[in-house]
Design brief:
The complex is a heterodimer of chains A (about 290) and B (about 150). Chain A is elongated, with a radius of gyration of 28 Å. Chain A has a five-stranded mixed beta sheet, with helices on both faces. Chain A has about 290 residues and is of the alpha/beta class. Chain A has two domains: about 60 residues, Helix Hairpins (Orthogonal Bundle); about 210 residues, ATP synthase, F1 complex, gamma subunit (Pyruvate Kinase, Chain: A, domain 1, 3-Layer(aba) Sandwich), CATH 3.40.1380.10. Helix content of chain A is about 65%, strand content about 15%. In chain B, a hairpin with a 2-residue loop joins β3 and β4. The radius of gyration of chain B is 16 Å and the shape is globular. The chains are: A alpha/beta (about 290), B alpha+beta (about 150). β6 of chain A pairs parallel with β5 of chain B.
């Protein structure tokens, strides 16, 4: 049975924990708002870009001299998994759900006799995957210095992927991230970036004249497409992270509240018991006289 | 043609945000094969851009934007410029321009490091030259000439 003083300290400690989680929840809500605005603002570019690219690619896909980024190396032996997670924890299952999907895919690919290489973005995923897949790590991109996800970050990661592709290190690249559906729902998602995965059914846009040439523009656009997709995934990830953190901190705040209620009842009961005991002692002492 | 005298849609978007969206009379673009002016009713063209100035003439005056490359989609109904980096001309300071030139220069160095490939080196060298030329054209460091605000 803890003493009254212990209980009092305990209550004070849980109360300050609740204050912290409450503050974190509000910070996450503000950041989520900003992340959603950023995702919203990036949409016009991504939509136009993808539409133009899909039109161009539909025309070039069949040809034998289409760029490698579009038709692939012709093999599917070496897979690069780009696992994008957060730099910080306390965001519920956000990181582990991405890591779980990536691990599942990595095991499946390995089971098929393929070679798996992993490029991690964000510290948390690296920590989770290190034990089972540490030997497959080929690189890491640190985002802890980036307060805001700018396009330059997407370009940097894309440059890293493209450099490895040009060096012939892999045949297929896939990015793993959380798609933001709502504050309580983030969906672990994978997307192939090399060879480029484009919306099906796009008609070859014979409508346009291309300057300098169709092939020239396509070759110019395909590397940018990697950056565009990585950037979009980063933005989705950031919104998902803050959403997950908000939910996790909301739960934590509520749990702290419940715990404070329970401890307060326990405290009051102990106090009452102590008073009753003292009264009994006084009364029985008086009767004995 | 009636539409020749009208206006058409001009959008300038970067990956991070929409920089401009307005009704324009004509748009001058720094296309890779040379500058071109698009007006309402233009034949559909998709062209890559080199570093340069995008000049938009609209009812309230003229606005200029500096782009560091990208591409443009031109149709009879409008022009969409997709630029990875872009700023209104007045906001390009000497530091920003110096950074762009530096980026182009390191791209050239990176291209030269890969042996047996002349194409990328030529492209990077052209990019660098264009980037430097942009600085001369907009005279960075001097007080920018502000175009009248749109009415």
């Amino acid at each position: 049975m803890p003493s009254l003083k212990d209980l009092k300290n305990r209550i004070a400690s849980v109360k300050s924990t609740r204050k912290i989680t409450k503050a974190m929840q509000m910070v996450a809500a503000a950041k989520l708002r900003r992340a959603q605005d950023a995702a919203e603002a990036s949409r016009p570019y991504a939509e136009r870009f993808n539409a133009v690219l899909a039109g161009l690619a539909a025309g070039a896909r069949g040809s034998d001299n289409a760029p490698l980024l579009l038709r692939g190396t012709g093999r599917e032996q070496v897979h690069l998994l780009v696992v994008m997670t957060s730099e910080r924890g306390l965001c519920g299952a956000f990181n582990s759900s991405i890591a779980r999907l990536a691990r599942y895919e990595a095991e499946k690919l390995q089971g098929e006799g393929k070679t798996v290489k992993i490029l991690t973005v964000g510290k948390k995923g690296r920590d989770i995957l290190r034990r089972d897949w540490g030997q497959a790590f080929v690189g890491h991109v640190d985002l802890s210095a980036e307060r805001r996800i700018g396009y330059a970050v997407g370009q940097r990661i894309a440059a890293e992927i493209l450099r490895r592709f040009e060096a012939g290190e892999f045949d297929v690249a896939t990015i793993y991230f959380n798609r933001f559906r709502s504050v309580i729902s983030q969906v672990p998602t994978r997307k192939r970036v090399i060879p480029a995965e484009l919306e099906e059914g796009a008609a070859p846009s014979a409508l346009y004249d291309y300057e300098p040439s169709e092939e020239g523009i396509l070759a110019d656009l395909l590397p940018r497409a990697v950056a565009t997709q990585v950037f979009a995934a980063l933005l989705e990830n950031r919104a998902s992270e803050e959403g997950a953190r908000m939910t996790a901190m909301d739960n934590a705040t509520r749990n702290a509240g419940d715990m404070i209620d329970r401890l307060t009842i326990q405290y009051n009961r102990s106090r009452q018991a102590a008073i009753t005991k003292e009264l009994i002692e006084i009364i029985s002492g008086a009767e004995a006289v | 043609m009636a539409e020749m005298s009208g206006t058409f849609r001009f959008d300038l978007v970067s990956p991070e945000r929409r920089l401009a969206g307005l009704e324009a009379r004509e748009v001058l673009l720094p296309a890779t094969d040379g500058e071109m002016t698009a007006m309402p009713g233009h034949a559909p063209v998709i062209t890559t851009l080199r570093p340069g100035l995008v000049r938009v003439v609209h009812a309230g005056g003229t606005e200029e934007f500096v782009v560091t490359g990208g591409f443009a989609e031109i149709t009879g109904a409008g022009v969409t410029v997709l630029a990875e980096q872009s700023l209104p001309r007045g906001e390009v300071t000497a530091e920003i321009h110096a950074r762009w030139v530096e980026e182009a220069r390191s791209a050239l160095t990176a291209a030269e490091a890969i042996p047996d490939r002349a194409g990328p080196v030529d492209d990077a060298a052209r990019l660098l030259a264009d980037m430097v030329a942009v600085g001369d054209r907009i005279a960075v460091g001097q007080a920018p000439s502000r175009a009248p605000a749109p009415g």
